[in-house]
Specification:
By secondary structure, the chain is of the alpha+beta class. It has helices spanning about 10-15, 20-35, 80-90, 95, and strands spanning about 1-10, 40, 45-50, 60, 70-80, 100-105. The chain has one domain: Dimeric alpha+beta barrel (Alpha-Beta Plaits), CATH 3.30.70. Helix content is about 30%, strand content about 30%.
Length: about 110
């Protein structure tokens, strides 16, 4: 099985404009994934870390990447194919509540 990193983007406005029944179904979907062993978590506050030329660690509060929607959460999933991974996250809260979920194939380092 391949591993995939998923990043959910969404905001309160999109979440609130989604029907409560759709939101409830999305949260139930995430609960089923979590019960099946998927690592799912909400996004905290990011910190950028730099150590150019191993000359000393520098940190900066905040995200490096910027998007129209804030990062809402992450998951690490296992699926046989990218298509299966897409199906797995297509009913997640960010996907159904006017946000977006990115699916990144994880290429493990040797």
């Amino acid at each position: 099985m391949a591993k995939f990193i998923t990043i959910g983007f969404g905001d309160e406005k999109g979440y609130e404009q989604t029907a409560p029944a759709v939101r409830a179904a999305a949260h139930a979907h995430d609960a089923r994934l979590k019960a099946a062993g998927v690592l799912i978590g909400a996004a905290g506050s990011p910190v950028q870390v730099r150590n150019h030329d191993n000359a000393g660690v520098r940190t900066t509060a905040g995200a490096y990447l910027h998007s129209d929607l804030p990062v809402a959460g992450f998951a690490v999933i296992e699926a046989a194919t990218l298509e299966e991974a897409i199906r797995m996250v297509s009913k997640a809260p960010c996907a159904v509540a006017h946000g977006v979920v990115e699916v990144w194939p994880l290429q493990e380092m040797p």
